[in-house]
Amino acid sequence: MIIQGRKVWLGSSFVPAQIEIDDGGAACSAAVYGGKNCGKIQRVMRLNTEKCDIDYGDNWILPGFIDIHTHGAFGFDTNDADSEGLRYWIKNIVAEGVTAIMPTTATQEKKALKTALKNVAEVAACVGNANDAVFAKNTVERSASKRAAADAGAEILGIHFEGPYIDRKYRGAQAESAILPPSIEEFWEYQDAAGGLIKYITLSPTQDRDFEFIRFCAQNGVTVSLGHSDAEYGDAVMAMANGARSITHVYNGMSPFHHRNAGMTGVSLIENELYGEIICDGLHSSAEAVRLFFNAKGAHRAIMITDSLSAKYVNEGKHYKDAAFEKAFIEETAARNNQPDKPLTKSGGYALYLAGQQIELDSSGLARLCKDGTIAGSTLKMNEGLRFLIEEVGVSREAAINSCTINPARCIGVGDRKGKICAGYDADITVLGKSYEVLEVYCRGRKV
Q1: What does the alpha-carbon distance between residue 124 and residue 77 come to, in Å, rounded to a whole number?
Q2: By the 8 A CB rule, do 109 and 81 touch?
Q3: Rounded to 5 degrees, what are φ and ψ at 182?
Q4: Mean pLDDT of the chain
Q5: Of the residues 308, 323, 345, 420, which has the fewest C-beta atoms closer than 10 A?
């Protein structure tokens, strides 16, 4: 298939171009391709070089969005360990231009965490994921795996393991009773349950005083991100020197900047080698704070995340238990017409959770713990985050687009196949209209 447009994002600017993509179909396993180019971008050409199948005109053709910190949506939480919910999530999250995610766990007791990890591993093995070669030994099987993944929707790039190795003071919505010091032996249990899919971990360096655990993770293919931490500047710098590569949801869940102790926030803004996640909803951090962050990190180290929870899309009447939910949602909405600011605690008759803790939505759209009102996460959509960055914060197009495409890809080690429109890369493409609405999405070459 050949698509084209006058605004194709190549490198750091929009260029008139054509893109030839392989759709991952039956021909993919034939001798012509040998399975190697399945779901890949074959060529990038000048506009109108060849007859095209679809012309997107002046709409933006971008690399597919990558969300490396997202707990759930559509009523599903990663810790729920529900295969139906996870499948529904990855199939439908493409509606906001997302073509790859890292399902993110939250701190909970060991049995629940291992069950959640096993669920992600089993679904990933069925639909294909970043490690599809692990699950498919020959070319035909790999081709089938990639076709199944494209049909399923967004690709599972691995698991983001947030906690339990964090500080209590800045735990946020993480369950205090389950917080523990890091243990290599215990982590192997988690990694075994995950089938090796834990690729990214959030921890506090104050819990790893000799940095042995951080070195262990870095040496075993797990990206270390520092977060939920009361660490001082020096602690975080030492963690970086021992292998940490990123900072989790900057400004939130960390020691603040002070002119006598820069803290975790200072490290995230000062150290150019570190990537930094940021929630771009205008609620977790103000537009001014987000601008400061992007001014510090530049175009190549900032990562937009949603940190979305199960509540996302539920307030729009979308739940993975669709049939029963939609009827209950309509009834509840009708009953609440005269109370528009009432929290949506049990929308449509379904309680919403983060790692077993009940959450609710406030009138602004923030998700909070029911028990004490602590901010728990967002309902942000990635395309809306991109609009916020460019139109409200004033971030450059390059920095904003990189933050949800190539930067997260490079941070987690898949920048050689994800995050940009380039021959040989996965054909993950998102087409946006003038108001940042999603017009079309391709996952590994398949229109979804």
Answers
A1: 16
A2: no
A3: -65, 145
A4: 89
A5: 323
Split at pLDDT 50, 70, 90, the class of 207 is very high
* 285 dihedral zone (left: phi>0; alpha: psi -120 to 50; beta): beta
Helices 110-127 & 139-152, crossing angle to 10 degrees?
110
Determine the Cα–Cα distance for residues 86 and 102; give it in Å rounded to an integer. 11
Tokens encoding 66: 């990558």
What is the per-residue pLDDT across 14-44, written as a single tens digit (0 to 9) for each? 999 999 999 866 555 443 334 567 899 999 9
Note whether 441 and 59 are within 8 A (CB): no
Exposure string (b/e) for 398-428, b if CB count within 10 Å is 16 or more?
Answer: ebbbbbbbbbbbbbbbbbeebbbbbeebbbb
The candidate with the shortest Cα–Cα distance to 183, out of 219, 199, 207, 160, is 207
How many other CB atoms are found less than 10 A from the CB of residue 325? 20
Percent of the chain exceeding pLDDT 90 equals 77
Sequential DSSP letters for 276-287 = EEEE-SSSSS-H
Q: Does residue 307 have an active-site annotation?
A: yes
Helix (H, G, I), strand (E, B) or coil at 140: helix
Count of helix runs (H) and strand runs (E) in the chain: 13, 23
User: Could you report how far apart the first and last alpha carbons of the chain are, in Å?
Assistant: 14
**What are the pLDDT digits (tens) for 412-431?**
999 999 999 999 999 999 99
The per-residue pLDDT for 371 is 92
**Catalytic choice (235, 307, 426, 428):** 307
Among the listed residues 411, 425, 435, 342, the one whose alpha carbon sits nearest the alpha carbon of residue 64: 425
C-alpha to C-alpha distance for 429 and 54, rounded to whole angstroms = 13
User: What are the tokens at 193?
Assistant: 């349950």
Residue 419 corresponds to which tokens in the numbers above? 């995050």
Alpha-carbon span 227 to 201, nearest angstrom = 9
